[in-house]
Amino acid sequence: MDAIVTSFPRIEDETGRPSQKEAEDAVRVLLRWAGDDPEREGLIDTPKRVAKAYRELFSGYDLAAEDVLGRTFEEVAGYDDMVLVKDIPFFSHCEHHMVPIIGKAHVAYLPNGRVLGLSKIARVVEIFGRRLQTQETMTAQIAKSIDETLNPRGVAVMIEAEHMCMAMRGIQKQGSTTLTTTFTGAFKIEPAEQVRFMTMIRS
Ligand SMILES: Nc1nc2c(ncn2[C@@H]2O[C@H](COP(=O)(O)OP(=O)(O)OP(=O)(O)O)[C@@H](O)[C@H]2O)c(=O)[nH]1
Ligand SMILES: [Zn+2]
Fold first, then answer.
1. Distance from residue 74's CA to the centre of ligand 1 (Å)
2. Do 116 and 177 fall into the same domain?
3. CATH number at residue 25
4. Among 12, 42, 143, 192, which has the highest number of CB atoms less than 10 A from its own CB?
5. Ligand 1, CB within 6 Å, residue ranges
6. Is residue 189 domain-resident?
7. Residues 123 and 182 reside in one and the same domain
8. What's the ipTM?
9. Nearest to 126 by CA among 69, 65, 83, 67
């Protein structure tokens, strides 16, 4: 899984970003591109709102999964069976059209002595979701980051999502769901572990 990039150079200061004004001007251009008038009353503050919303929707670029996953603990009375957090809702944006991907992630691992705080798994989904994505990349990034930081016996990730670029435009197929999976370690080499993961997701 070497080719999977899970982190970006972090922007420690604002030099790597366009200014607020540049971002707002770009939104004004897109408003004109859509056919509207950025100077009409209802749209006057829209560029400012969109710039602010982008910082929230794409806040995953400012965060590193390793920071979140760094805190693990081992006092779990020898528990070594599957830990599964399922139905983690997320919003992302496809990197092709920059429109929403809406879905759920299911993330499991087989502990190797240490466990993660459960909320950290959902935080990792947020970090990768709040970037421009393909579903395949996001699935692989979640698995890789947990695999590398926790060093468990295996990681399984499944994402189910609807892509608005397929629903609202282009082929216009509403309601289709795309499923992607990544398995590492025991989940990859033992089909029975994959079956158990699937069964627990669907139970
Ligand atoms: N594999 C993959 N494809 C995606 C994802 N999100 C969007 N796409 C697809 O990316 C493709 C981009 O195809 P292009 O032919 O370059 O772009 P397009 O002309 O806008 O394609 P249409 O959507 O078919 O109109 C489309 O087929 C999208 O459905 C994703 O997460 N994974
Ligand atoms: Zn798209």
1. 43
2. yes
3. 1.10.286.10
4. 143
5. 94, 96, 134-136, 163, 165-166, 170-171
6. yes
7. yes
8. 0.91
9. 65
Kindly report, residue by residue over 140-173, the tens digit of the pLDDT: 999 999 999 999 999 999 999 999 999 999 999 9
> What is the per-residue pLDDT across 14-56, written as a single tens digit (0 to 9) for each?
568 899 999 999 999 999 999 999 999 999 999 999 999 999 9
Q: Tell me the two tokens of residue 139.
A: 């699935």
Same domain, 104 and 153: yes
CA 189, CA 148: separation in Å to the nearest integer?
Answer: 18
Instruction: Calculate the average pLDDT of the chain.
Output: 93
Specify whether 140 is located in the same domain as 177: yes
67 in any annotated domain: no
- Domain span at residue 99 reads 72-202
Mutation to probe ligand 1, out of 91, 92, 94, 96 (largest number of atoms < 8 A from CB): 96
Query: What are the structure tokens assigned to 165, written together?
Result: 């670029």
The H-or-E segment that residue 187 falls in is helix 185-189
Tell me: do 125 and 46 sit in the same domain: no
